[in-house]
Amino acid sequence: MEIKKLQGVIEAILFTMGESVELSRIASAIEHDEETTRKIIHSMMDEYDAENRGIRIIELDNAFQMCTKKEMYEYLIRIAKQPKRYMLTDVVLETLSIIAYKQPVTKLEIEKIRGVKSDHAVNKLVEYGLVEETGRLDAPGRPLLFGTTEEFLRRFSVQSLEELPTLDSEKLEHFKEEAEDEAQLKLDI
Questions:
Q1: pLDDT digits (tens, 9 = 90+) for 81-124
Q2: For residue 99, with 0-12 CB atoms within 10 Å meaning exposed, 13-18 middle and 19 or more buried, which class applies?
Q3: Using CA atoms, how far apart are residues 169 and 96, in angstroms rounded to an integer?
Q4: E-only strand ranges, 98-181
């Protein structure tokens, strides 16, 4: 195997493992002796330094690890400080609205309303901090109950759930009729 290919393999190993990897394991993986492997890695270390790359390879007690150069920390901090942007897809928004209006609510209740599994959408909402577990339902299996968070109120600029928009009774009746008609069509087919 040519040297550039071996360097690529070593780089992939160190990047993927994310922690220190013993020289013997690297040598075994590239099918070379430890001394040759060490020379290849030291050559890579020199190249990384000469090319002003953002990463480096360090040696730790006969093992090697890929890590970020110290000079890059300030840039990493800038990125870490930037707020994450969340994607609220139609599915996630639909699930969020069910939770907001029906809380506390179980996944099973959400799924009955939506007609499909909602695990992914609920998990995303929990990850985004918009929904949280609020307890357990006193029923067989003790399913989790979900409700909105303070972050939900902040993001949607409402002080309390009472400020959420409501449908007027005429529109609500219209939606019920549409749903019943749709259900009847499915039964007729």
A1: 877 777 789 999 999 999 999 999 999 999 998 889 999 999 99
A2: buried
A3: 22
A4: 131-136, 144-148
